[in-house]
Amino acid sequence: MRPLPEPARESLTLAPVLHALSDPVRLELVRRAWANPESTCSVLADGLDVPMSTLSNHWRVLREAGLISMTVDGRHRRIRPRADDLSDRFPGLLDPILRLGAAESLNSRLV
Amino acid sequence: MRPLPEPARESLTLAPVLHALSDPVRLELVRRAWANPESTCSVLADGLDVPMSTLSNHWRVLREAGLISMTVDGRHRRIRPRADDLSDRFPGLLDPILRLGAAESLNSRLV
What we know:
Chain A is of the alpha+beta class. Chain A has a single domain, classed as Arc Repressor Mutant, subunit A (Orthogonal Bundle), CATH 1.10.10.
C-alpha cells in the first residue's frame, strides 16, 4: 500500500477545490467517492464514458486539490474522500455542491 | 446602455459557475459585486494588481457563467450581480463560497 502525495489539511485552499469540482465528470467522481468511502478508481468510474487517460488526470486533479486520498494497492488504486479535512477547512462548502451536482446529473447523460 | 449577452436563468449550469469562482481574483470581484450591486468594472477592480486585459477576461468569464450582468454605458461597464438567478438555480451555493472566499482573502495579498 503506497499513498500518493497530497496537500496537508492546513495548506488546502479554496480555488483549487472549486476548480476540481468545476468539471462534471470530476464532480460525479467526487459524489460517488463520498457515497462509497472505501472504493477504487475503477469501481467509482464504472459506466462513465471517459478515456482512461482522462480519468487518470481527473483523479490527479482531485488528489492535488485535496478532495481525495489515493493509495496504490497492487493493481488497484484505492480512493478515500477527505471528508473531515474538507469540512474542517471549508465548512458548509461541499454539501450544497454535491446536492446540486446530484440534481444536475439526473438530467444529464453522465449517470 | 447596451446589455452584453448572457445565458438565460434556465440554462445556467453548475460547472461553469464553479469554474468562474475557482480563480481568486474572480472570486474577489464576485464578492465585491455582491457587496456593491450597482457598480462598475473599474470601481470593483480598484486596487487589484491585475492587468486590464486579464480583468476583461475575468469579467467575460463571470458574465458567460451567469454570475453577473454587464451593461455598456458610454465609457463605463456597469456590473449587476445575478443574485436572484443564482439563488433560484443553485440554492445554498453562493453563500458558503463567498464567506470562505472572504476568510481566505484576509490572509492573502488580494485585499
